[in-house]
């Protein structure tokens, strides 16, 4: 069985979609091919992968409540390609948005259902994830956590001659457990969808989110944007101002 | 101010321009949004791409009423129209709030009146339902008080609708 994973994020690296795609791949067996969809130049390469595939997993961000335009452009071509060649793949979708409610991905899921209907493809279902950006940050924090463990172990060897530093491992374990907890909803539903992909079965639409209270999430999201805007300078360029249109 | 965003050919441009204060033509020749958030964090309400959509959020943001004329594509806007909408998120700020009992961004230009969509092209009943739902979501997200979706079977109906 061959499954094609399509990363529909326009970002070159470290996108939230690439993180969820990585997680979904862990729960799917057989031949797995990952492709990035950023420009029309990617279309031919991805479409060629569909010929002998049984399932396609779109992994993409929510843009203005629906599918981003560059992915829509690909879907139009994919419809023509699949219709022409009589392909009847199963289509699954992992959508993520920056807001905390995963359910805000519902219109996007419906668009994929209609795409499947028009293309003669089988709609397998999807997972809508809220707090995608912040969940993506947890993977970076996990890498930082590992780096800290290595540094503390080296310091422990230098100070006591022992490779095992209990404090470093307790700190690492606590942080890792917390990060894992934030991701539990996503892991559960991606594991569930992975099982459906393996069986070629439908799994319906499910919505989940980062597992923290909404008001805490909003506070952290605001702090995140203040810090980014501070470093990028937007904070000092009329950050919240009603900018007037300037004729050029 | 009334803004019309459309994906129609040049033969409709005069009609559209006569019906609004600002017409935005989605001709499919613009680069798509790169998801960098620069229009929030680096150069507020402007895109780093220096094309005709660089300040499109400033036009949409100041509209009391927006009308979107679009061909149906799976219950969503056409690729060309969606390209313009994706490039317009600078209408909001990076800060968050609750609107319609869900998280959304605060509005850079305050509240608006009507988000109206005119859909042409063959559309199934299920796609119509999605379009109504999508327009409702867009209206909440962008701070419009009302949303409406009209489906037309022919573009000849356009003149009396706008």
Summarize the helices and strands and which ones pair or pack:
The complex is a heterodimer of chains A (248) and B (162).
Chain A: E1 2-7, H1 16-26, E2 31-36, H2 43-50, E3 55-61, H3 69-85, E4 90-97, H4 106-119, E5 122-130, H5 132-160, H6 166-199, E6 204-209, H7 214-232
Parallel strand pairs in A: 1-2, 1-3, 3-4, 4-5, 5-6
Chain B: E1 2-6, H1 13-18, E2 22-25, H2 38-41, H3 56-61, E3 65-71, H4 79-86, E4 92-99, E5 102-107, E6 112-120, H5 125-142, E7 144-151, H6 158-161
Parallel strand pairs in B: 1-2, 1-3, 3-6, 6-7
Antiparallel strand pairs in B: 4-5
**Fraction of residues of chain B in helices?**
25-40%
Query: Largest sheet of chain A, order of strands side by side?
Result: 2-1-3-4-5-6
Fourth CATH level, the homologous superfamily of the domain at 2-133 and 185-214 in chain A: Flavodoxin domain
Tell me the strand percentage band of chain B: 25-35%
General description of the model:
The complex is a heterodimer of chains A (248) and B (162). Chain A has 248 residues and is an alpha/beta fold. Chain A has a domain at 2-133 and 185-214: Flavodoxin domain (Rossmann fold, 3-Layer(aba) Sandwich), CATH 3.40.50.360. Chain A is built from seven helices and six strands; from the N terminus they run E-H-E-H-E-H-E-H-E-H-H-E-H. Chain A has helices at 16-26, 43-50, 69-85, 106-119, 132-160, 166-199, 214-232; strands at residues 2-7, 31-36, 55-61, 90-97, 122-130, 204-209. In chain A, strands 2-1-3-4-5-6 form a six-stranded parallel beta sheet, with helices on both faces. In chain A, helix 3 (69-85) links the parallel strand 3 (55-61) and strand 4 (90-97). In chain A, helix 3 packs parallel to helix 4. Chain A is globular, with a radius of gyration of 21 Å. Chain B is of the alpha/beta class. Chain B has a single domain, classed as Flavodoxin domain (Rossmann fold, 3-Layer(aba) Sandwich). Helix content of chain B is 28%, strand content 29%. Chain B has six helices and seven strands, in the order βαβααβαβββαβα. Chain B has helices spanning 13-18, 38-41, 56-61, 79-86, 125-142, 158-161, and strands at 2-6, 22-25, 65-71, 92-99, 102-107, 112-120, 144-151. In chain B, the strands form two sheets. Chain B has a five-stranded parallel beta sheet. In chain B, strands 4-5 form a two-stranded antiparallel sheet. In chain B, helix 1 links the parallel strand 1 and strand 2. The longest helix of chain B is centred in the last third of the chain and has 18 residues, at 125-142. The radius of gyration of chain B is 15 Å and the shape is globular. The two termini of chain B are 14 Å apart. The relative contact order of chain B is 0.18. The mean pLDDT of chain B is 97. Classes of the chains: A alpha/beta (248), B alpha/beta (162). The interface between A and B is large, with 52 and 56 residues.
């Amino acid at each position: 069985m061959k499954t094609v994973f399509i990363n529909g994020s326009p970002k070159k690296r470290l996108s939230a979609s690439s993180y969820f795609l990585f997680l979904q791949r862990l729960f799917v067996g057989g031949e797995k091919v990952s492709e990035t969809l950023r420009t029309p130049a990617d279309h031919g390469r991805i479409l060629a992968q569909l010929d002998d595939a049984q399932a396609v997993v779109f992994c993409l961000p929510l843009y203005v409540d629906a599918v981003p335009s560059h992915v829509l452009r690909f879907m139009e071509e994919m419809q023509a390609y699949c219709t022409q060649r009589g392909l009847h793949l199963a289509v699954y979708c992992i959508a993520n948005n920056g807001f905390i409610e995963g359910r805000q991905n519902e219109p996007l899921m419906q668009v994929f259902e209609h795409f499947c209907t028009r293309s003669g493809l089988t709609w397998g279902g999807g997972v809508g994830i809220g707090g995608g950006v912040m969940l993506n940050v947890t993977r970076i924090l996990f890498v930082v956590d590992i780096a800290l463990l290595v540094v503390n172990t080296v310091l422990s060897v230098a100070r006591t001659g022992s490779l095992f530093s209990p404090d470093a491992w307790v700190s690492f374990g606590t942080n890792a457990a917390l990060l894992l907890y934030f991701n539990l909803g996503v892991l559960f539903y991606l594991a569930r969808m992975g099982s459906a992909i393996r069986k070629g079965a439908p799994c319906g639409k499910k919505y989940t989110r980062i597992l923290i209270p909404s008001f805490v999430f909003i506070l952290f999201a605001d702090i995140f944007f203040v810090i980014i805007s501070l470093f990028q300078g937007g904070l000092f360029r009329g950050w919240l101002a009603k900018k007037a249109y300037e004729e050029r | 101010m009334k803004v019309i965003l459309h994906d129609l050919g040049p033969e409709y441009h005069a009609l559209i321009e006569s019906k609004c204060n600002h017409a935005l033509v989605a001709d499919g020749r613009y680069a798509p949004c790169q998801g960098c958030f620069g229009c929030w964090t680096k150069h507020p309400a402007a895109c780093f791409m220096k094309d005709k959509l660089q300040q499109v959020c400033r036009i949409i943001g100041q509209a009391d009423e927006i009308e979107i004329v679009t061909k149906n594509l799976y219950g969503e806007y056409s690729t060309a129209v969606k390209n313009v909408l994706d490039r317009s998120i600078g209408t909001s700020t990076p800060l968050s709030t609750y609107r319609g009992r869900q998280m959304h961004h605060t509005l850079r230009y305050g509240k608006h009146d009507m988000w109206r969509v005119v859909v042409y092209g063959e559309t199934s009943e299920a796609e119509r339902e999605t379009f109504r739902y999508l327009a409702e979501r867009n209206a909440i997200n962008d701070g419009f008080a009302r949303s409406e979706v009209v489906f037309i079977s022919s573009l000849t109906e356009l003149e009396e609708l706008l």
